[in-house]
Specification:
The chain is α/β, with parallel strands linked by helices. It has two domains: 87 residues, Rossmann fold (3-Layer(aba) Sandwich), CATH 3.40.50; 102 residues, Hexapeptide repeat proteins (UDP N-Acetylglucosamine Acyltransferase, domain 1, 3 Solenoid), CATH 2.160.10. Helix content is 15%, strand content 27%. It is built from three helices and 23 strands. A seven-stranded parallel beta sheet has the order 6-9-12-15-18-21-23, with no helix packed on it. The protein has a six-stranded parallel beta sheet with strand order 7-10-13-16-19-22, with no helix packed on it. The longest helix has 17 residues.
């Protein structure tokens, strides 16, 4: 059983603790955070320890890290903490839900969080520090570069390359053999049919409110 320290005290870190606690391969022993942000001594019944001095009481030879931070600032915070922990010498786990399908020859990097009902087809490469929420389709021969966040029910067709630090929102669709630039934001429900450049934002317009109020609609 591997002993794990989770970085962060937010909702995703709490969710990570929930999943890891139900997996007999892992034992979560503590949470960690930058000292200036620590406002409580414990979280989910476990100690909260200062990240700057983490290795003093949790040496790198005995403990591994899991950093399931969100997509804030196009995933830059998660990238920063991943690199800082790597500099300290820590190794990482990647959590893959037993309810995800991952082809035998697909590869998944360090510190990835793969939720249930993801379909990861043959020859897919998912690089370090990526989060794939539930229910996505990652088509054959696609590559998701480092530090990406893929929301739920995204369709990434075959042969797609998703650039580093990209966020893809719920129900977005990417056509086959597309190249997504670095640090893109692809909003919910967006359809991508051609290559994108770095730092681009694609947002689908939301449904407009009806002029007829709900108390006048007959269902």
């Amino acid at each position: 059983m591997e002993k794990i320290i989770i970085f962060g005290l937010g909702e995703i870190s709490q969710i990570a603790h929930y999943y890891l606690s139900k997996d007999d391969k892992y034992e979560v022993v503590a949470f960690t955070l930058d000292k200036k942000y620590i406002k409580e001594d414990s979280f989910e019944g476990l100690p909260v320890v200062d990240f700057d001095n983490l290795e003093i009481n949790y040496p790198i030879i005995k403990f591994k890290l899991f950093i399931p931070l969100s997509y804030s600032n196009v995933n830059k915070l998660r990238e920063q903490k991943f690199l800082e922990a790597k500099e300290k010498g820590y190794k990482f786990i990647s959590y893959i839900s037993p309810d995800a399908f991952v082809a035998g020859n697909a590869t998944i990097g360090d510190n990835c969080f793969i939720f249930e009902n993801n379909t990861i087809q043959p020859f897919v490469k998912i690089k370090d520090n990526c989060i794939l929420w539930s229910g996505n389709h990652i088509g054959h021969h696609s590559e998701i570069k480092e530090n990406c966040f893929i929301s739920s029910h995204v369709v990434i067709s075959g042969g797609v390359i998703v650039g580093e630090n990209t966020f893809i929102g719920v129900n977005a669709t990417v056509r086959d053999h597309i190249k997504i630039g670095k640090s893109n934001i692809i909003g919910a429900g967006t359809l991508i049919l051609s290559d994108t450049k770095c730092n681009e934002v694609y947002m689908n317009k939301g449904t407009k409110v009806s002029r007829v109020p709900s108390n006048r609609v007959k269902l």
